[in-house]
Write a structure and sequence with these properties.
Protein name: 5-formyltetrahydrofolate cyclo-ligase
Number of strands: 12
Number of helices: 6
Radius of gyration: 16 Å
Strand content: 15-25%
GO molecular function, one term: 5-formyltetrahydrofolate cyclo-ligase activity
Strand order of the largest sheet: 3-2-1-6-9-11-12
Shape: globular
Helix content: 25-40%
Order of helices and strands: HHHEHEEHEEEEEHEEEE
Catalytic activity: (6S)-5-formyl-5,6,7,8-tetrahydrofolate + ATP = (6R)-5,10-methenyltetrahydrofolate + ADP + phosphate
Cofactor: Mg(2+)
Pfam family, one: 5-FTHF_cyc-lig
Distance between the termini: 22 Å
Largest sheet: 7 strands, mixed
Amino acid sequence: MTDFPQTKKQLRRTLLNQRRQIPHEIWQQKSQVLCDRLSDWQIFQQARNILTFSSFRQEPDLSPLWQIFPDKNWGFSRCVEKDLVWHQVAIADFNNNMRSGAFGILEPRHDLPLMDLQNIDLILIPAVACDRRGYRLGYGGGFYDRWLPNSTGLKVGIVFEEFYLDEIPIDIWDVPLEAIGTESMIYC
């Protein structure tokens, strides 16, 4: 592990503040370009069962992707105590199927069917930042850190290009991702 000028907590605070400064129109444009890049990616095109997230705190907005491909099986997580529980969400009825969760994040209703986690093709993972080694800086709650080691499917961090860093501090429990998607490129 390298010595970093900032701890994870300090870096997270700095980057979240930087992300909040992105004007809404620019955020929408960057999100759309990122969705276009993902939709052109052969791995995405072939994926049938996809786990994803609803945008929170100006994370990239992937909703254009769901709307273009409503026939894929989309799974969204719900925080239950310290775990992520994944439900299949029918995009055609998205607004009725989602609720604001414990952290203010849009989550699926608890009575929706669970996703079959043994047959996941692709996992689109939110992050504050990702680095060139595939590590992600999350929000500090550890939900993905606990869930990722036993997950199946190609793990893709989703960030805007300016949050794709050379290196971020890591801990022994951090799991490297297999790809990082930004509006500029998909890094594998």
